[in-house]
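Hi everyone,

Forwarding the result from last night's run.
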Amino acid sequence: MTSAFEPVHIAGGLLPNRIALAPMTRSRAAEGGIATGLVAEYYTQRASAGLIITEGIQPSAVGQGYPFTPGLHSAEQVAAWREVTGSVHAAGGRIFAQIMHSGRIGHPSLLPDGLIPVAPSAVAAEGQVFTGEGLKEFVTPHELTGSEVRATIADFAEAARNAVEAGFDGVELHGANGYLIHQFLAPGSNQRTDEWGGTTENRIRFAVEVVKAVAAAIGAERTGLRISPGNQYNSINEPDPQPAYEALVKEIDGLGLAYLHILEHGPEARETTLALRKQFSGPLVLNPATEGPTDHRALTLIEEGTADLLAFGALFLANPDLPARLRTEGPYNTPDTSTFFGGDARGYTDYPAL
């Protein structure tokens, strides 16, 4: 039986445990998408994780979906991230950059030079997005042309190269939560009839090509992919997701990726998780759906072989020393959501340690 506190090989190295910090939007970047000292402090506090996966980082200016989110598409952004990764490594941690293009999830007021959000099809998401001017309705996005799709794939690869230059141990491609890769996978947001849409084979093509481009740029062993089959977040419609995700995993399995990361959207998702677990030959990171807070009780998922690593979200925010607390089965600080976002959100530093 495998323990959550046994090492595991990821990205050509040995992680000391199988506890991961889940990627979560922090909105603490400075003007120009620059990571700050507060960002470095936040991740360094959690360096005892086997693996840190950062908040979503946009690979291009048009990929930004929220205020104060960081980028990896300028020299200044790379330099700022180098300070973060250096601090995490000095504390003994390992850190992957999550590359997230928000696609249609965003607003023109967040973007420079008259840009508007882009997507597989000119179909607006339902609902509103938070901007610096308050909540605003999602707009109808610009439908990417074939050449623009290829250019966007190249943006992902270049951001991955920048991540390595910035000192990250690898990257995770965000293919979940209704962002651009997920928008191509889902028939509700992808209504194309060209090589990038229509059939299952065509709808998975963008995800496959992004993974292959990034793997070619920095090495498959430093490339992970996050997916969330059937997740309806951000107005996604996937009425029968399993066949598409099985086809996707089949296409990428032979590449030798660092890992596949599954975010479960509810208890009913476990069947798909188990099917993909059997299909994927590399390490599986699981952000599981649980009844109540995800804590030490979820570690049985590693012991029984459902996953190789578990990703923890809110509990890790309130407990920067979470691996130690999981080992002793608590006690846990209670998450305070008022400290989770924004440039002045320092409350997480005040949680008492064990």
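The mean pLDDT is 94.

Cheers,
N.
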